[in-house]
């Protein structure tokens, strides 16, 4: 027996399609034959193109916050980024600016958000640089030893260039903080933006210690920083977001059938959808400034695969899958995140007629919420992106991600703890 409208809708749609093709075997062969042949031919190619995941992260927890700086041939730009990072982390202030402390539980993550930082780890991942980037990091540490104080610096040198995704994952899987931040070493986003991300993370975090906040440049679309880019660069940017939306959030079957088939052929049950809250769409998936609760970082990075530019998309997809699975389990048990938050003394979303009023409130209904916070961003020279080559690579990786999770070749992450 179905437990939700979405399941009933899927059954209704499937039954209609089966009846349609069963009544006309020739039409079924003409329509489905090429599709099945293409899938069988593409599957070996998908296996060959798909990377393997890294080993799990260690359980050691020694720091309030761990900042993961990604560097590839950043000899000239990295010193100023380290200076900026040190200046921010040595302030005697809490990261979160929330006035109150939601929740009854006191945890290391809570301390990391609301207390002046006492223990901080900075990891610089040298992604196979050939310009002496790692040596610059060590020289800075020696020359500024008195300023490091409560901040422990770790340098990880990769023997070969793994790509941005591979370097980020390597650093995050070895970070030892309750809060984990990864940031590009080019300084395009100021490190002080961490306060805004931490404040939002403090607001949305769950009693089980889940939450992700992504820095976003979506508010800059239409600004001089974007408008003054070349036509080709802007065209590729908009094309990427269109392909991303179609692959990761395809239109509902019911809506597609309703649009393209006569109304008498479409059962009204087909148009029903589940009423479980869902993650609002992330407008900027690629900003290199993201903050994770440790539990959420473990969910998204353990078992991730993509090592190139588009790795963020897989991380966010894994977070959504983990959240959805946990939500369904709660619903099957007759519970919800509102009840979990209420019992733990956490803030509840404002609601009308049983539904959250705003995107900010919807996030409080999710087992693993992902928030977006606008950050100031400045395009810096020296980009490592080959516009045409990497754009094609991104498109291919999007297909690889979607296909592997859709076919269950890559296991879905475990349900988020609630």
Automatic annotation (TrEMBL):
Similarity annotation: Belongs to the glycosyltransferase 2 family.
Keywords: Endoplasmic reticulum, Glycosyltransferase, Membrane, Signal-anchor, Transferase, Transmembrane, Transmembrane helix
Enzyme class label: transferase
Gene Ontology biological process terms, A to Z: protein N-linked glycosylation
Catalytic reaction list: a di-trans,poly-cis-dolichyl phosphate + UDP-alpha-D-glucose = a di-trans,poly-cis-dolichyl beta-D-glucosyl phosphate + UDP
Cited InterPro entries: DPG_synthase (IPR035518), Glyco_trans_2-like (IPR001173), Nucleotide-diphossugar_trans (IPR029044)
GO MF entry, a single one: dolichyl-phosphate beta-glucosyltransferase activity
Domain Glycosyltransferase 2-like: 113-205
Protein name from the UniProt record: dolichyl-phosphate beta-glucosyltransferase
Signal peptide span: none
Main location class: endoplasmic reticulum
Residue intervals passing through the bilayer: 26-49
Gene Ontology cellular-component terms listed: endoplasmic reticulum membrane
EC number annotated for this UniProt entry: 2.4.1.117
Pathway: Protein modification; protein glycosylation
A Pfam family hit: Glycos_transf_2
Source taxonomy: Eukaryota, Fungi, Dikarya, Basidiomycota, Ustilaginomycotina
Localization per Swiss-Prot or TrEMBL: Endoplasmic reticulum membrane
Membrane topology according to the record: Single-pass membrane protein
Species per Swiss-Prot/TrEMBL record: Ceraceosorus bombacis
PANTHER family: DOLICHYL-PHOSPHATE BETA-GLUCOSYLTRANSFERASE, GLYCOSYL TRANSFERASE
